[in-house]
Design a protein that fits this description.
194 residues, alpha+beta, seven-stranded antiparallel sheet
């Protein structure tokens, strides 16, 4: 697994606060634990990147062709510049609208700002509860679960452009990451505490 991947998954798994309460006086069920974990981790989530749609004076088609091959965008040319337009398939993986930030934007070597859009590279979803261990006296429980990290077509195409590397030497594939959460039983039910 990549270091960036590990950092993102651990940040998601560890970035939990005490908020949700499972309103049950009895045992902590898998369904209740899953619901609370989903709420606390705000799942589903995603890892994002940026896609350059247009940079005046630059033909970016060699970098954009893998995205076109995946059916994510179409290319047109304006003089020596190439412009990418997202297809319906590509728009499914965008975050917000295209933007040109005249302040801190990345700029081309000619000084012109480039038009970009944020894209989802990986989607992170809850996998499954793999076990619940309730301590003696039933006051605390450790819930083991998995998160699933799935590459989007943009991640697959970016490997082909050389912008990101696949795990190992190939195209990124779905991966499962094991994690756990601590629950504590209160008078009003079970709470996720970590």
């Amino acid at each position: 697994m990549t270091t960036r991947h590990n950092r993102v998954m651990h940040a998601i798994a560890l970035g939990v606060t005490v908020v949700a309460v499972v309103s049950c006086e009895g045992n902590l069920t898998r369904a209740d634990a899953e619901r609370v974990i989903r709420e606390q981790l705000k799942l589903p989530q995603h890892e994002e990147g940026r896609l350059v749609l247009f940079a005046r004076g630059h033909n970016l088609s060699r970098f954009q062709e893998p995205f076109q091959d995946e059916g994510l965008l179409t290319l047109t040319f304006e003089g020596e510049s190439s412009r990418a337009s997202l297809t319906a398939k590509g728009k499914r993986y965008t975050i917000g609208d295209a933007y040109v930030d005249n302040g801190d934007a990345r700029r081309t070597d000619t000084g012109a700002p480039q038009e970009e859009i944020k894209i989802k590279l990986f989607e992170i979803e809850f996998g499954e509860i793999t076990g619940i261990a309730v301590s003696e006296g039933s006051a605390t429980a450790q819930v083991d679960y998995t998160l699933v990290r799935t590459p989007t077509p943009f991640a697959i195409a970016q490997v082909k452009t050389g912008e990101i590397r696949g795990e190992g030497t190939g195209i990124p594939t779905e991966s499962r990451v094991a994690s756990h959460a601590e629950f504590k039983k209160y008078d009003d039910g079970w709470r996720m505490v970590r």
